[in-house]
Amino acid sequence: MQPQQRADRLRIFRQELDELERENALQLSPEQRARLDAHIDQTLKTLTAQYDVDTTDSQRQISLGMKIASALGGLALCAAVVLFFARYMGYWPTPLQVAVLVLLPLVLTASAEWAARRETTLYYTSLLSIVTFAAFVANLAILGALFNLVQTPNALAVWGMFGIAMAYHFGLRLVLAAGLISFLGWVTAATNVWRGWWWIEFDRRPEEVMLAGLVLVILPSLMRHTKRTAFPAVYRLLGMFAIFVPMLFLSAQGSTSYLPMDARNIERFYQVFGAVTSACAIWIGVRKNWNGVVNTGTAFFAIFLFVRLIDWWWDWMPKYLFFLLIGLVAIAMVAVFKRLRGRMRIAT
Amino acid sequence: MKRPWLLAAVVVLVISNAWVLTQIAINRSGTPDSQIQMTAREAVYYGSGREDSSVTLRLRWQNPAPQYRYVPPIAEPFTSWFDLAKLKETGFDVSLAPESPAASRYYQNQRSREIFVALEYDGPAWQNWLNRGEPGVAFAPQFDSRMTPEQRMQVRRETESRLVAVDAGVDAAALRQKYPDRAHAAILRGLARVVREESPNPYLRGAITSILTESINVPQPLSRVFDGQFSYVPWTYSGEQIKTQPPPYSLTLAIGSRFEPWVASVARTSQ
Question: What is the pTM of this model?
């Protein structure tokens, strides 16, 4: 169990104990209560000292704000690094350009490690890791532009490896997502290269991206994440996007599919297949208690459904009737999901 | 090992940079594959914004494919060098007959292939390109409608890029053997596609869609040539007369053993 989860459970336990005592459902003797309170306080104190966990609701709110601020700050600093290079690098001699480009990600990696050793909540480490990843992307991309190199998909592979290594070292989900997206890009691009095609055009055959997405969804089931328990959800989320976004594209433009069918029939197939697959994802998510999978499946199920409804009804139906039907469909979906939620509650 | 992931990240950083710098060194070591003197007609500077200090030239070259000619549509089968035989030679799958009902989707879904492109500078191909375009110059949309065909041809002759794509292949050495003049024939990496022409008798042809190193960085101190206000308007039309401007700079473009270019020298020309 993560330290923050333990602290949350203790906080909720104490609140519930107060409630039970008020309702006379449970009465502890003053000595028992004092001993329990002392134990909880001591445990929370230890957790706070060791892991800087939040022990109150207001602390949790502030922590959430800090997480958002560090992510936004990281992204803003990435933009600052790239724009700084664009603004001044052209005035520098080539050796200085190369030295700065190569050394910056190394220095930032060392800074992230230095920050990680000094903080337990990893806000600054997270921010520095995002900037480090961006600096490494800028490093190779700008070197390529400076020396007029032909773009290669292998850059995606090394960005992916770097992002994944940084993410597993520090336990950062955002950096893992950046690494996995790069790796996903490389896998699909590399399949193009092996067949002699130009690597960037992997969007011309969306089914290849879907295949890579499927691998990403399955991967956490084959790897044990005992330490990084939040990581499998990131794999599944990105994998699902890599499966459903191309499916949406194919449901509108079937001619790019590998399926040996008429383009219109391919579109119909993916319209049905997309809705069925997203419903299956919801079902699997409910069974396995994967909240992220349920939410992503629901979002894509709704998108597939509403895109179809617009396609079928928008042109010929009075607009008030169309929106009325959309509202009714939404109410029906709420009823279905309410039942699903009930099942999830029983499962937990 | 205490921090295997951190070590892996640092190793990836170091090895990838070492690899890239080695490739750059290999490309630029020894005698360049070609060195071509050209001007602002072939390597255009469009200026850069306030937030961008880099100086980048864009390589302009003439594409002999039909869509770059002025007379649409072309009724006769395309007779340029990028024909069916060249498509096969460059690795495209052209096994499906172009008149087959499935051919449209089949060829539309074929992706680009990376190939080597031979570009000839200011040679017979440039003259040929001018001559082939002459009948259609009256239809060229970029000219003022009052300009005579002679004035239009003058503009093309005096301001257009003289770099013309003359051949393509998968073997750069074979291309170099075919075009041995290293001062007038450049070999660069580019992209090609198969195109199925929709006409009463559909046929297949190849098309070079881009040169992969069209954007060429000019490093310091060479980029100082472009300092200050810099604008080049190749030609102006007063309503009666044409006035063409000579290119404001010339440069030497070197192309290395990995067929990646760099600006070896650049100088302002006296106007």
Answer: 0.84
